[in-house]
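dumping the sequnces here before i forget
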Amino acid sequence: MTETTEVLRAEKVTKRFGGLIAVNTIDFAIPRGSIVSLIGPNGAGKTTFFNVIAGIYDPTDGRIEFRGETVIAHPRRAWLEPILWLVMPGVVAMATILASLAGLAQGTVILGIFATILVLLASLVTGVARGPAYQRFLGRFGIFRSARPNDMVVAGLGRTFQNIRLFQNMTVLENVQVGMHSRLHAGWVDALLSTPRNRAEELSSRIRAEELLALVGLQGTGDGLAKNLPYGDQRRLEIARAVASNPVLLLLDEPTAGMNPNETAGLTSLISRLRRDLGLTILLIEHDMKVVMGISDRVTVLDHGEKIAEGTPDEIRRDPKVIEAYLGAPAA
Amino acid sequence: MTAIASPAAHPNPLARGLRMTAIAVAAVIAYLVVLWMALSLFGGRTIDAAFPEALQQTVNALSIGAIYALIALGYTMVYGIIELINFAHGDIFMLGAFLSVVFIGGITGNNEAVTNIPLLIILILGALILTMPIIGLLNAGIERAVYRPLRKAPRLAPLITAVGVSFILQNVALTIAGSGDRRAPQIFPLDWQISVGGAEISILSIFIFVLAMVLMLGLQAFVTRTRLGRAMRATAQDQEAAALMGVDANQTISLTFLIGGMLAAAAGLVWGLRFGYVRFDLGFNSGLKAFTAAVLGGIGNITGAVIGGFIIGFIENFAAALGYARWQEFLIFVILTLVLIFRPTGILGQHSGDRA
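..and the predicted 3d for all of it:
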């Protein structure tokens, strides 16, 4: 893949929920290797925008290019897809009906019914495995489906959540391993037969997971349950889990929410380290202005679903529109 | 959220496994003693005559419990991952029984027992290898075609749909096979027995129990130690978060149905070997009991389903051994009710906010 200078580019992205316009024609770009922050008052549409990027919502309008490829846009001719699945079994079923009308032996008809069911099952199961080949096949009929969240992870996007969403009843290490899911390859045959490949992969994923835990400062906690970690460590674990998929772009949704100043400082330095050590590009939603102004290269401000300002932290701090909508008059 | 049980969370899986085994062995011995006492006190046997009979019955209970456990796993896994009570699962089991009858009957061509051990093993394994993937695929296909479009619909919609699928499958079997009992070839010789202290223990029962244990331990290893098993547990806990970590929820759910169907097919095959008949409404009765087993153990929990299956097997066997076979269902549901009064989430169930 030829890498573009912009990891992500959003063009005129709009998301409506009924009458509410949560995100309104936003143009937005994230240069490779930068830390970009998204700020704005509550309800400004930051998280909705995040969710559109992550593939949770299809945008009502506009499109998103990720690493040079359009991956997310309003779906086109999606209704055609299920019809395509029914074509093959439909042909077999028609042949069966014709055979029975032509007065062929009953055995042929029963065989035809079974064949129909088998082909139907086969086409349904093919639809389960949606690889790039399948997407190209759909493209030939003019069908466009937005990438789903798991497709975005495969394409190179990792994210954390505003309110922690760890797999509470799994161990810390397993949480990180789930994050690696899309980079591991053992299929169910490997799993059932416990092939060398499966064992080697399990072992290497454990080692890698331990490394990532050490990177975020959670070494030695791997065997405990995620829900037993202290709050600040849960946030760190979320980051380790998001980084485990080797993303190009990392979305952090209010990573310092609910942290004390000490923990916040630690996390800020962790974010800088992630960029330096792993070469990540980072998009940050954050309310703590000290964090935002300290580590961002660029800041984008949203209000009522619209972009009201964009620039370096210094420019944003002085922008009268931003002060009015969000920052308020500088204290003292 | 209910979650597919996560035994790997225990700091020492081996110690946990040993403890579980010890508890299980203790429970089986306890059942043996209780049955022994009951037979001699209420069954009109002398205390010496009651013991061999109790031993025989205990092994039978284990084998029937293993069949229920295999079916119950399908209910509990599906509930764990999409919170759907898949009423059609019993009928998947029924179709598995029919299909294995077709395969075994088609190969052997008669209903006689096969005494050649290698041939017997090849026949049974061959039938398993053919039946399990087909029924598993059928189950996954039903999910794909029927339940997936309703994934975001209110809870009742997929539930009623599952009832509908159950009727469709029953009627397909009724149309093809007719309403009476169809003979299942009992290729496993029923007269193979081991004598222990005067008891004649059926080797078929032991075989069924061992086969089920192998499948269940395989499932356990799959769920706890592999990438796909982890994905399954993650999806059960938080589907959206799992998707945002790169887990394809649709694929994982299909896999869950596939595995559930495969286990039900294995249960169907051994059902035919043990009882020698299959019928179109098999899935209703056994399915209901297996569902009860899943609820008893704590629906959504894999270990719970296995425990529940064996408990149902014991209860049923207890009633039958004392000559009250007609009261089996009564006893099962009384005990289910009692357990649910004191532990509404079942024996190993976790609290869940809202349930269908």
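The mean pLDDT of chain A is 84.
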